[in-house]
């Protein structure tokens, strides 16, 4: 049952890890393989025998306790039920294991948001440079050759920004409209980490290269329109990064809270399971004194008949 308990705790860890929205389908498939192996192990354990007698079952076993054949019924441990009660320390240890998984999920979510912010930071720089180029292209004293040179750099930056919008983290899209669930406690509760939508129209207009609504710098008129679009994109990315910062703040507080909870649970296990050395030492000394006193009394009692015989001689 001890190893079965460990297997169940590991199954709990895997279930917590699989709840992480930043995990890819490949990760989930790997968790499932290990989970199935542990399921088979636990199921096999329930049918084990000792000397051809089932170790686990609902039937009680009679145990002889005296020379007259008196017995008491040793209650069976029924592992075929849907659930059964574990010791306090086992439950606490299982909770700590789940907390470890929740902490791993939160740390992974922090890494996910930091990766998002890293891309958005460079994307912000690219948009600012695009704004500079648009301002330069608005200058009526610039020749067509100058505008063409600005357009070449502008187009490269548009491609960079457009490519950034499709980046992935662990095969999970970094940017999109879908929220990602992040585990926040040992019970598997989650909160939805809002998606950052870089496919929004304000970004698309700034990177559109070609077509009727193309954002380009081939003339001062186009440059004026491009500047408006780029400024709108810069304003939106500032809002999106602020939203991302709020999520990171929550994740950091969640990480701290989980760490404190884990520490408190570890202390609780120590209080329940560890021996109070001072109390046990006192009890040991007490029993030693009682044993020694009893031994002395028995010794004296055994000497009394001998003394009486000496007097009769």
Quick synopsis:
This protein is mainly α and 313 residues long.
Describe the structure.
With 313 residues, the protein is mainly alpha-helical. The chain folds into 2 domains: 2-86, f41 fragment of flagellin, N-terminal domain (Up-down Bundle), CATH 1.20.1330.10; 94-272, f41 fragment of flagellin, N-terminal domain (Up-down Bundle), CATH 1.20.1330.10. It has 7 helices and 8 strands; from the N terminus they run H-H-E-E-E-E-H-H-E-E-E-E-H-H-H. It has a two-stranded antiparallel ribbon. Strands 3-4 form a two-stranded antiparallel ribbon.
Estimate percent helicity: 55-70%
How many domains make up the 3D coordinates?
2
Uncertain regions: pLDDT < 50 for 5+ in a row? 82-86
Architecture (CATH level 2) name of the largest domain: Up-down Bundle
Rg over CA atoms: 36 Å
CATH class of the largest domain: Mainly Alpha
Q: SS-based structural class?
A: mainly alpha
The general outline is elongated
**What is the end-to-end distance?**
68 Å
CATH fold-level label of the largest domain: f41 fragment of flagellin, N-terminal domain
The fraction of residues in strands falls at 5-15%
As laid out across the biggest beta sheet, the strand order is: 1-2
* Major sheet characteristics: 2 strands, antiparallel
* Oligomeric organization of the protein chains: single chain
């Amino acid at each position: 049952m001890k190893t079965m308990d460990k297997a169940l705790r590991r199954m709990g860890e895997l279930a917590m890890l699989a709840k992480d929205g930043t995990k890819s389908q490949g990760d989930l498939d790997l968790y499932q393989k290990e989970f199935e192996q542990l399921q088979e192990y636990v199921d096999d354990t329930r049918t084990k025998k000792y000397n051809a007698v089932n170790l686990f079952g609902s039937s009680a076993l009679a145990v002889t306790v005296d020379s007259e054949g008196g017995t008491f019924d040793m209650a069976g441990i029924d592992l075929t039920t849907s659930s059964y009660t574990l010791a306090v320390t086992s439950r606490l240890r299982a909770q700590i294991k789940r907390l470890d998984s929740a902490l791993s999920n939160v740390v992974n979510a922090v890494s996910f948001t930091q990766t998002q912010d890293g891309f958005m930071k460079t994307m912000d720089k690219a948009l600012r440079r695009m704004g500079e180029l648009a301002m330069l292209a608005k200058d009526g004293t610039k020749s067509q050759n100058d505008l063409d040179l600005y357009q070449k750099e502008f187009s490269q930056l548009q491609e960079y920004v457009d490519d950034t919008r499709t980046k992935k983290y662990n095969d999970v899209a970094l940017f999109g409209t879908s929220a990602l669930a992040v585990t926040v406690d040992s019970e598997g509760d989650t909160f939805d980490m809002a998606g950052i939508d870089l496919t929004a129209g304000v970004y698309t207009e700034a990177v559109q290269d070609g077509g009727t609504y193309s954002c380009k710098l081939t003339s001062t008129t186009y440059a004026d329109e491009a500047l408006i679009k780029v400024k709108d994109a810069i304003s939106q990315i500032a809002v999106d990064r602020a939203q991302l910062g709020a999520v990171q703040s929550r994740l950091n507080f969640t990480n701290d809270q989980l760490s404190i909870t884990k520490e408190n649970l570890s202390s609780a296990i120590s209080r329940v399971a560890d021996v109070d050395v001072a109390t046990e030492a006192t009890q040991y000394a007490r029993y030693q004194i009682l044993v020694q006193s009893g031994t002395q009394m028995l010794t004296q009692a055994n000497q009394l008949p001998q003394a009486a015989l000496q007097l009769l001689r």
